[in-house]
Amino acid sequence: MTSSTETVSKQDTIDYAARLGDDAIVIGHRLSEWVSRAPFIEEDVALGNVALDFIGHARMYYTYAAQLSNEQNSTDDITEDNFAYLRDERQFQNHLLHELHKGDFAYSTARQLLIDVYNKYFLEQLKKSSDETLAAIAVKAAKETNYHCRRSKSWTLRLGDGTTESHERMQLALNDIWGYSHELFELDDLEQRLVDAGVAVDCTLLKADWLKEVTAIIEEATLTVPDQEWAVSGGRQGYHTEHLGHLLTEMQFVHRSFPGAKW
Amino acid sequence: MQVIPTKSPTQFEREQFRRNSEFPELWQCLDQVKDPEIPALSLWDIGILKDIKRQGKQATVTITPTYSGCPAMDAIAEDITIAFKAHGIEKTVIITELSPAWTTDWMTDKGRNQLRDYGIAPPNDVIGGHEQPLNSDSKVLCPQCSSADTKLLSEYGSTACKALFQCNSCHESFDLFKHI
């Protein structure tokens, strides 16, 4: 990446940080839905902790977006909460894969495998961002992502190469979500500008490594990489599936019903 | 001549930084502030306390989060402010620094021993070193009976920073503070 930060518009960086925050908060919230519903207590705790890691990443991205927003307009007093709780569905720009419903345990496992391996390669590149704060967040998040990847991989192997039932459910889940994975590797104008400035990750370059690693795990788990041709996208432009609205309703309810509540 | 280091360079640097501070009384004051999740450990010993500056009745404290989603950070910031109030500091500004990212290498030797006494295995109690990732064959010294005959139950324990193990000798389950 080359550094030419002076050409970067602050608004672009705010939008980019918010997007990354959106991905993290949405998947973090989805994972938190497993708390008290996981197959056994240790896994319950693990899912809760992984959810918390993602919510932590979201807080770092949102706090940075808020800081830049306040620098841009000193009369504003924006915080991370404005991003998480006071924006509507169309303002969220997370990838669709993240917002899809919780599904059964195989579904959540398959999704997590695709996301965790993606994050591994994504954060490795974001560490090199010319934006120091984004690079620092990436260093922090990458350490935790290593643990996430190991967890996703071991569950994929366990379920894929497990019973007939678990194998079938894993394959069904992969078939269901595969079409949402392509969006992870798209660049829109905003990200292209930031890639040119050395701030954003060129995610089109991540696909080969991601596919190679995910394929190896899926095959080791005796599963098949889906060969479907359909692909859905639109999350980065604010076009969502029906699932996001329900998630936001639950996530934002308390904050919107009791503005400024403290306990 | 062979030099046998008794202290890791990282720890040496931290201690030197603290020794050179103009405000030793404030560092001592924060030795009383413990991690709310692990009350055995002070902020200094766990390695999240990075810098303290004082300008009259105002202080600036730089801390770094352990895990990014650590819910203890807000409580820690509050505890620091309260501890400083007793020292005549009316306003405490907490700066959360992300870079360089916190690592368990910053935990002091005293902190590691306190952790073990408290019943949590410190990261360096992983047999064969903590650098390689945990797996189902990983062995950790049991903080209760020191047996190495232990098994990994889950890579995630009671908090994100810990993994859950069980000792095959005394049958106690215990947390390992994971290397990060």
From TrEMBL, chain A:
<protein>
    <submittedName>
        <fullName>Phenylacetate-CoA oxygenase subunit PaaI</fullName>
    </submittedName>
</protein>
<dbReference type="Pfam" id="PF05138">
    <property type="entry name" value="PaaA_PaaC"/>
</dbReference>
<dbReference type="InterPro" id="IPR011882">
    <property type="entry name" value="PaaC"/>
</dbReference>
<dbReference type="InterPro" id="IPR052703">
    <property type="entry name" value="Aromatic_CoA_ox/epox"/>
</dbReference>
<dbReference type="GO" id="GO:0005829">
    <property type="term" value="C:cytosol"/>
</dbReference>
<dbReference type="InterPro" id="IPR007814">
    <property type="entry name" value="PaaA_PaaC"/>
</dbReference>
<dbReference type="InterPro" id="IPR012347">
    <property type="entry name" value="Ferritin-like"/>
</dbReference>
<dbReference type="GO" id="GO:0010124">
    <property type="term" value="P:phenylacetate catabolic process"/>
</dbReference>
<dbReference type="InterPro" id="IPR009078">
    <property type="entry name" value="Ferritin-like_SF"/>
</dbReference>
UniProtKB/TrEMBL annotation, chain B:
<dbReference type="Pfam" id="PF23451">
    <property type="entry name" value="Zn_ribbon_PaaD"/>
</dbReference>
<protein>
    <submittedName>
        <fullName>Phenylacetate-CoA oxygenase subunit PaaJ</fullName>
    </submittedName>
</protein>
<dbReference type="InterPro" id="IPR011883">
    <property type="entry name" value="PaaD-like"/>
</dbReference>
<dbReference type="InterPro" id="IPR034904">
    <property type="entry name" value="FSCA_dom_sf"/>
</dbReference>
<dbReference type="Pfam" id="PF01883">
    <property type="entry name" value="FeS_assembly_P"/>
</dbReference>
<feature type="domain" description="PaaD zinc beta ribbon">
    <location>
        <begin position="133"/>
        <end position="178"/>
    </location>
</feature>
<feature type="domain" description="MIP18 family-like">
    <location>
        <begin position="27"/>
        <end position="85"/>
    </location>
</feature>
<dbReference type="InterPro" id="IPR052339">
    <property type="entry name" value="Fe-S_Maturation_MIP18"/>
</dbReference>
<dbReference type="InterPro" id="IPR002744">
    <property type="entry name" value="MIP18-like"/>
</dbReference>
<dbReference type="InterPro" id="IPR056572">
    <property type="entry name" value="Zn_ribbon_PaaD"/>
</dbReference>
